[in-house]
Amino acid sequence: MGLRRAVKRQMRQAIGQPIFGWRVWLLPLFFWPLALDIPVEIIRGGGTRLVGALLGLGLAWYAAALMARGQRRKGAQLFGVAAGLSAGLAAGITPPIAVGLGFGAWFGARLLTEDLPEAAPPPPPRPAEPARPDALEGPRAQLSRIAGAAPRLPLGTLLLEAAGAMQGVVDDLEARPARLHEARRFLAVQLDGLSRIVDRLEAGAAPPETLPSLLTDLAASARKLRSELRMAESEALEIQVKVLAERLRQEER
Q1: pTM surpassing 0.70?
Q2: Distances (CA, A) of 152 to 34, 38, 176, 238
Q3: CA distances to 14, 85, 105, 106, 241 from 27, in Å
Q4: How many domains does the chain have?
Q5: Nearest to 218 by CA among 116, 146, 119
Q6: pLDDT for 196-239, tens place per residue?
């Protein structure tokens, strides 16, 4: 029976539930004379003694509640404060003796509840997980810069056409992040190449004769990649439908 109670106490302590014990709730009963003194002081009009009695009773019961929740040390300290205040205010004892009585009450409460477990401190909060970097943040910034610079550059229409086709690829990848690995080469080679071309044109370079056809090829390549990504999604959906249909047929058998 004692082992079962000890196990239950440990379980309550682990999950933060109150740890009740008869010794904890007997401690405020030492202040029972104050309950009789309260109505007397109300009739007499003794303000200081009434305040001392109320403080002594209230703090004693609050200390018991703290100890019942596992905060044994704080509860014992509060018992000492309650005893010192009630002795000095309610009983009218001189301050040095009242302070000594308070220390005695604190020490006695500590000894009486020494074997009660102390509540474990709450676990520290988990550190916030760092935000994952957005793999498309760089390509979006490149396309935004290209779209802003193209109208002022030679072959601006073709530059905008190529950038628009690549923007479609980035939008598709944003909607289907699982396909990002299939477009890494496109983002690293073609988009980066278009960005470098814009840099040279902004620096005043004259566009070579082969640049218009290259920009057309870049736009066509981006459209082809979008088509391949959508086709891959369609194939994945078709496979999923076939698998689900096969499972349904197997369950009906």
Answers
A1: no
A2: 90, 90, 33, 46
A3: 25, 16, 10, 11, 71
A4: 2
A5: 146
A6: 988 888 888 888 889 889 889 888 988 888 888 888 778 778 88
* pLDDT exceeds cutoff 60 at 13: no
| pLDDT, position 20 | 46
| Structure-token match 């074997």, residue found | 115
* Residue 217 and residue 158 in one domain: yes
What does the block give as tokens for 43?
A: 């009739």
Retrieve residue 184's tokens: 């890494």
Are residue 148 and residue 74 in the same domain, yes or no?
A: no
Note the pLDDT tens digit of each residue in 84-143.
777 777 777 777 787 777 777 777 777 666 666 555 556 677 765 544 556 778 888 888
Asked if residue 129 belongs to a domain, the reply is: no
Domain assignment of residue 77, given as a range = 7-112
E runs forming strands in the chain:
none
Whole-Å CA distances, 170 to 93, 132, 176, 198, 236: 83, 18, 10, 19, 20
Indicate if 18 and 105 belong to the same structural domain: yes
Q: Which of 87, 85, 79 is nearest to 105 (CA)?
A: 79
Judged on CB neighbours under 10 Å (0-12, 13-18, 19+), 159 is: buried
Average pLDDT, the chain: 75
Closest CA to 113 of 24, 28, 26: 24
Residue 119 lies in a domain: no
For residue 68, being part of any structural domain is answered with yes
Indicate if the pLDDT at residue 17 is higher than 50: no
55 in Cβ contact with 78 (< 8 Å): no
